[in-house]
Amino acid sequence: MKVAVAIDGSENAMRAAEHAVLIVRYLPDAELEIIFVADLSKAMDERLHTYSPESMSLRREQKVHPVLKMAEDANIYAELTMLKGNPSQEIIKHVNASGTDLLVIGSRGLNTLQEMVLGSVSHKVLKNVSCPVTVVK
After folding, report:
1. Residue 33 in 3-state DSSP?
2. Which of 38, 54, 88, 115 could share a disulfide with 124, CB 3.0–4.6 Å?
3. Contact (CB, 8 A) for 82 and 34
4. How many other CB atoms are found less than 10 A from the CB of residue 118?
5. What distance in Å separates the CA atoms of residue 117 and residue 113, rounded to the nearest whole number?
6. Is 131 helix (H, G, I), strand (E, B) or coil?
């Protein structure tokens, strides 16, 4: 069974990662994939705010490293997939093409402007992926 978790550095994404690690830990032969999408529109905003490409890369690494460490601490091998583009579109495209059996995603991400009851990325992904989705609050 292939379990994927989409992360963005938010608290909800960390809770989703904890849930995904728990699932993989108790399912024999389950695999964990961590999906991080570098949002190009945010990257442009960050660049305009004087971040160098190196510091932008470091900021992305800071969002991914805790989840990789969490999997490592649970003795789980995790494959990291880094994508670029619109987060919801890239997650949908990747999950539908990769044979993922379960996607775990946080209910809200870092984009507070688009949050309502369910974050816009998680809502779009939930409606458009072809596998079961667990949304973690």
Report:
1. strand
2. 88
3. no
4. 14
5. 12
6. coil
Cα R_g (the chain), whole angstroms = 14
Integer CA distances (angstroms), 119 to 78, 79, 87, 104, 106, in order: 25, 25, 12, 14, 8
| 8 A C-beta contact, residue 32 and residue 132 | no
What does the mean pLDDT of the chain come to? 86
Quick: pLDDT tens for 49-86: 445 566 667 777 888 999 999 999 999 999 999 999 99
Q: How far is CA 26 from CA 22, 30, 36, 93, 128, in A?
A: 7, 8, 24, 28, 27
Q: What is the pTM of this model?
A: 0.85
Amino acid in position 96: N
* Helix or strand run (H / E) with residue 106: strand 102-106
Number of other residues whose CB lies within 10 A of the CB of residue 61: 11
pLDDT of residue 62: 86
